[in-house]
Amino acid sequence: MKIGELARKTGKTSRALHLYEELGLLQPATRTEGGFRLYGADEIARVYWISKLQDMGFSLPQIQSLLGSVAASATAPEAMQGVRELFRAKLDETRKQVTRLLQLERDLAESLAYLEGCRVCSEPAAPEICSSCASDRRGDEPTPSLVAGIHRGPRRAAEADAEGDAPAGQHERTEHP
Description:
This protein is mainly alpha-helical. It has helices spanning 3-10, 14-22, 41-55, 60-72, 76-116, 145-148, 154-163, and strands at residues 30-31, 37-38. A two-stranded antiparallel ribbon has the order 1-2. A hairpin with a 5-residue loop joins β1 and β2 (37-38). The chain is elongated, with a radius of gyration of 28 Å.
């Protein structure tokens, strides 16, 4: 297939594929007598591989360096040791990011559930009272940090300091990693 078809099949632009070639990340399988580049299944796989590495946060120069290291290795086990170490580090980083995102998901879900009670609030339009909602619906439920922070601006922080309350941004829930 020609470069335009490879671009359509992989969702990349022809320009991106040319860049991959310039960087040595992609080579055409062959060329026609007229000089057109032709690509096959291996090149489709290579483009998908490059895309996956980019999704993982690798830049094109980093991918280029990875391929250079593999090519410069004396043995296959040596070549794969570097890849293994790189992927292990990326897996650790990804797991940490997943943990942070799961905490964010919990915080958002908790805040949204809390905010549902605000739909039926009969208090006058005075948002400053929301951070210390005393509604019967709340009981002794603490205000989630994502909601409490809305009302903990500079003015509220100064008031809290004057009253001996917790500093701005601090709340009962400080379990964030």
